[in-house]
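ugh ok so i messed up the first submission bc i forgot one of the chains. this is the corrected input, ALL of the components this time, i swear. 412 residues overall. if the numbers dont match what u have on ur side tell me asap before i send this to the collaborators (the ones from the other lab, u know who)
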Amino acid sequence: MTTYPACRHCGTEMPLTFVDLGLSAVANSYVPMDKAGEPEPKYTLHTRVCEKCWLVQVDEDVPPEKIFTSDYAYFSSFSDSWLAHAKAYTEKMTKRLHLGPDSLVIEIASNDGYLLKNFVANGIPVLGVEPSGSVAAAAEKIGVPTLVEFFGEAVAKRLYDEGKRPNLICSANVLAHVPDINDFVAGVAQLLTGDAVYTVEFPHLLRLIEEVQFDTIYHEHYSYLSLLAVETIFASKGLRVFDVEELPTHGGSLRVYACRKEATHREGVGLAKVRADEKDARLDSAAGYAGFSEKVEAVREGLMRFLAEATGQGKHVAAYGAAAKGNTLLNYCGIGPDLIDYCVDRNPAKQNTLLPGSRIPVFDVDELRKRQPDFVLILPWNLKAEVIKQLSDLRSGGTRFVTAVPAILITA
Ligand SMILES: [Zn+2]
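and heres the new structure output, hopefully the right one now
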């Protein structure tokens, strides 16, 4: 009898495939130029659907220490729109929860302090929890106290025993990144007391399905979350969701507000709306997940046709943004430096490396101005407007911008 991987939340076997993207290098493991000759480990990238709790998840775990290492290159502060998003959030929560000098805000996966610094500036005490030493050091430097740890129930219990009683716990784009989602949510539940609030942002599975955002699937992204699955997982740890906001970030995210079951928060209108949307899309049945693989193949065919035509005509194609999602796209399509000459990125930590898997070299953004490519493929399509604005001088020189998801689009 065939056995299937077990669901990371409820342990149910999962025969149902969402999409199988084959073998892929770990998305954020940029290869130093001097290690170009060395092979890199590859892992299967196969997502499945749990037909009991409807959690979509990757079925092979890459050990977290292989992903979130001390030289983990993601610094939140390199995206202007993300910084603005974080600042707006802190202002909103300060008002909504009446936060002040006697409050405490804990952010899990606080990165380089990009968000908590806004609370600090307003005299509101904070604590960041961040597993990557290099980004945590950057946070400390700007006055954001940061604990270098992987968050979970054990860390939460220690903080609780030390007397930490946060009024607000927040995390953006981390719930999907934890292999043991039960332990993580148990940790949040441990620290929430009274009417304290947990807000969590994650890319919405419904948007992923509808807009074929398969490139947001990579190894460090263990789960792909619907409100349905999140409510089930939270309930198992004594939490309830009381409000939901739909956000444009990362191609369409949810910000979910949760509290202890017995807390006094009343349900907001956003909750009923998103529940109904997911019901309409049949996310509570296998039908809601069917046909996704075929849509993913169509994206690959579209991109490969574009690249074959462009390079066939002697045109030069460069890529912008050494983002994890770009690596999934390039690896899945089997694209290398023969089709895309080079990639550029604003983050100096990624410059002068090779993209994992595809081995396309990464340079500073100014390389585009030196070489004036015919096309720039924007890999982080969620930042398209921002990128085109940054590079408006190239556009007037004849360079055209391209995005591949959900279908090839060349901006005039
Ligand atoms: Zn399950």
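quick check: The longest strand covers residues 17-25. that seems consistent at least. Residues 69-73 have pLDDT under 50 and may be disordered.
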